Structures are given as C-alpha cells and as structure tokens.
C-alpha cells in the first residue's frame, strides 16, 4: 500500500536523521562520533538493501551506500578522526580494536 511505502521510506531516512542528530550537539565536541556513525549508518542501510521489504528502494540504497563509502574512505587521509576516538575518555583504543581488529 502507499502508506506502507511512506512508512518504509521514513524508516530508511530515519537512520540518517538519527546520525545527523548526533552531530547537532552544541555543548560538546562531536568529532569522535564520525567513524562510528558512518559505520552504523552503513550497516543499517546494508541490512535494508538485502531485505525483500525494501526491494523497491534497492537502487536508491545502493547509491546512498556508494556515497557513504566515498566519504568514509576519506577518513584514511584524516587521522584526526581515529585520534578523536583514541582520546575519547570512554572509547580510547577499545572501539578501534573491536571494529577493526
């Protein structure tokens, strides 16, 4: 139904919206959110990409994933993002070891 498509679209977009809100904090630095947020969004959309429920959005999700990967790859040239995770009082090296081995 049309409303089901609207709800599915809202679900897909809400993943990006939730990540965007993480970067909207005015009171605290958000740089350390960058890598985990990109990975979270990529994982959410990769899961949706393969679900039959979202099959009509496959092409759009694939395009969005290409864009995410393009910008995620730029982190390799900017070590400040990984450094922000290392300097974070909670994460330190834990996230890097857990996510990247």
From TrEMBL:
Protein name, as recorded: Uncharacterized protein
Organism placement in taxonomy: Eukaryota, Fungi, Dikarya, Basidiomycota, Agaricomycotina
InterPro entries assigned to the protein according to its UniProt record, in alphabetical order: RNaseH-like_sf
